[in-house]
Amino acid sequence: CQHSGTKPVFRHPCAGVAQATPDSWEEGIPGGLSGVSQLIDISGCQFVHSPLVTATLNGKSTGNPTVSCPAVYTVSHTENTFEVKVVGEATLLDVELAECTVHWVAQGFVCSLRSYRCKGYLQFLYRENS
Predict the structure, then answer these.
(1) Dist. CA 36–CA 65, nearest whole Å
(2) 85, 33 in Cβ contact below 8 A?
(3) How far lies 67's CA from each of 10, 34, 99, in Å?
(4) What residues have CB less than 8 Å from 40, skipping those under 6 apart?
(5) Between vectors from CA 53 to CA 23 and to CA 32, what angle results, nearest 5°?
(6) Best label site of 41, 74, 124, 130, fewest CB within 10 Å?
(7) pTM for the full model?
(8) In the prediction, which pLDDT does 118 show?
């Protein structure tokens, strides 16, 4: 499902929520950078290359204004996983107390000849290049 042997046929959005569990967050160096992080599995999206990923955190109110879900950024993108890292001085205890869940959206390329959108796009490309 590639056009001219170089580019996958169409972009595909995929989204999810990684629920907070006692083992979901890690403190250390999983992806090579220190700090609090979580590795997110996006293999179900079936991307053929690393997608563009946006992530935010959401959690419960603890009643303590100093304990909330911090800002995050993403690193270590592959077609199957990405790592979300906490910005600043937030600790593992902070994200666990606030029960921070990762809400993410990924935009990448997929290939599926069974997809109606894919077939329509192939026909469009064929007409444009004929």
Answers:
(1) 20
(2) yes
(3) 41, 21, 10
(4) 16, 18, 55, 81, 82, 83, 84, 102, 104
(5) 55
(6) 130
(7) 0.73
(8) 46
